[in-house]
């Protein structure tokens, strides 16, 4: 009777009987780990909201999560919790006149941020448009283009990812405050707090959020063990994720993986509050625009044209 | 205390004993529930990948059913208004059964939301105090509040009425009238808040129109009462409960008005979208004509439209309204029509085309169908048990023991 049929990433062990009992009651919440009430299970279940944890509690939680993750993923994983630096607000620039649609950024992002390989999860979507056709409704774009060679002469490309809105509708929508904007402007998600209602996905105007429809699968040798609690640590089935401007890198002074991966240097990144930063130079001197400015989300993701073509 | 235990057993016996037809019906429901539960356990184990929902269309059949049922919960209040505000006696006597429909519908709503969650064990995160409810910012938080409030109001009303009746006493209206009156704006609020749930985001132009909430109310006042019409006739046939024809016809008349408004609002929507012809007409175009050759929902939406128009005519003309063949035909057409319109036709096109312009055609997976069927069976079971207990109390065949009884 105690045959384990499920071992979820939180380490809550449910045997068949408690599972049935819970479902019979019609209330999923009653499917608590009654049979194996050791401290770890309850800690995982009762873990508080991230912003309500003291520094010491964060250390304990992370220690537990690292232990759970090493069992789950069969690899030692380090989970950081570096806080936002004062005087920093991150901004992104993307040069549409350079982008060649090669999707190197997509691949780098998947690797760096431990996105599921099956089912496939990708935080960056590159859209292809035919030159000379209207592109405001995005309906004429092609997301699944697959040519031999890029760039293709008749097309141009528009990569889209989380725009890190200053005024993010996803945060407004979330019923549990599982997603919020950090002081450095990055919109993050607590994967241990998200209930998977997907209301934020409904609210996001940029199609930036991804849901883990199944348990994410990543080959052990490809798993990136350097992670951040609010960023690229391995996710659970049934929670939402999205681009975090590589919080695990950028808070320690590195560039996001996509910026480093772009072969033509179309991607720029920096501190919006630093007047001497490259991103500020771009905003001040180039023809920049942001996606769907009409709906006042105030993205911190700027598209620009470095040279005309 | 002794009385309490005794009465509990009286109630239990009333629910457990029954004829062959009763047992057959209950077993049928239990089989469907078991099937749904099994399918749900699979979904719980593997994740929502077992459904047809994906990132492009991230809400589907579960939320569609949820939306439809919030509408059904209105049934009660459309009975309460003529009964208590206009003292229309024939309806006053049957309000109880409408309130029980509300209880059932809200319970089913909660189940539909729960099966849609990726992490159902964490559902407590959205409660106030113990969790971290995002109130007042998130409309989903509002919805949790108004739906539980509505459930509570109707439970209180039904329990009180049954309690008094079971002791053989009239219930004191003065005591519960405030609650009854409160239930009217509250019913409006559950629809409004549920409509606002979809309404509030410019990311979804199909929902981001002020017409959404009024239309939602209008169609809710069609489907809920139409279901009541059918239930009342079954009750009348199978039990000793007496329901006057006049009450049924009155309900049908109210449905006609609601459907008229619903169709008018649809017309307003169609005009605005197609005449202005901006890119925001895409979802409506998808629904009724298809978009870029994708037209999965078109036959359904057109059928729903035809059903609604026929039912409207039937309910509008007194002669067809007061003929039971056409009346029942109309009621069934409305239930199906609104189920398609509010189910498939309201939620899914919100995501088509998706924010990045992709058209992913969603059609519920087998598993979603089975789980949905299970929840509907569960609802039918609750309602049956409620009736099984309430009817003899109502007709005076079942009485509780009490020392104060004279
Ligand atoms: S792009 Fe979408 S997910 Fe990112 S902050 Fe804006 S609304 Fe939220
Ligand atoms: S899916 Fe998670 S992050 Fe998104 S709204 Fe629901 S609880 Fe919040």
Fraction in helix of chain A: 10-25%
CATH topology of the largest domain in chain A: Alpha-Beta Plaits
Overall CATH architecture of the largest domain in chain A: 2-Layer Sandwich
Q: CATH fold name of chain B, please?
A: Formate dehydrogenase/DMSO reductase fold
H/E element order of chain A:
EEHHHEEHEEHEEHEEEHHEHEE
Number of helices of chain B: 15
Text of the CATH class of chain B: Mainly Alpha
Tell me the name of the CATH class of the largest domain in chain A.
Alpha Beta
Number of helices of chain A: 9
**What is the total domain count of chain A?**
2
How many distinct domains of chain B?
Answer: 1
CATH superfamily of chain B: Formate dehydrogenase/DMSO reductase domain
Oligomeric state of the chains in view: heterodimer
Large-scale geometry of chain B: globular
Provide a brief overview of the structure.
The complex is a heterodimer of chains A (309) and B (406). Chain A is α+β, with helices and mostly antiparallel strands and 309 residues long.
Question: Can you describe this structure?
Answer:
With 309 residues, chain A is α+β, with helices and mostly antiparallel strands. Chain A has two domains: 28-80, no CATH class; 82-309, Alpha-Beta Plaits, CATH 3.30.70.20. Chain A is built from nine helices and 14 strands. Chain A starts with a strand and ends with a strand. Chain B has helices at residues 2-16, 20-46, 61-72, 75-85, 89-92, 95-116, 139-166, 173-199, 212-238, 245-276, 282-288, 298-316, 318-321, 324-347, 366-395. In chain B, α4 (75-85) packs antiparallel against α6 (95-116), α6 (95-116) runs antiparallel to α15 and α10 (245-276) packs across α12. Chain B has one domain (52-364): Formate dehydrogenase/DMSO reductase domain (Formate dehydrogenase/DMSO reductase fold, Up-down Bundle). Chain B is mainly α and 406 residues long. Chain B is built from 15 helices and no strands. Classes of the chains: A alpha+beta (309), B mainly alpha (406). The interface between A and B is large, with 63 and 59 residues. Bound molecules: iron/sulfur cluster (SF4) (2 copies). One iron/sulfur cluster binds next to α6 of chain A.
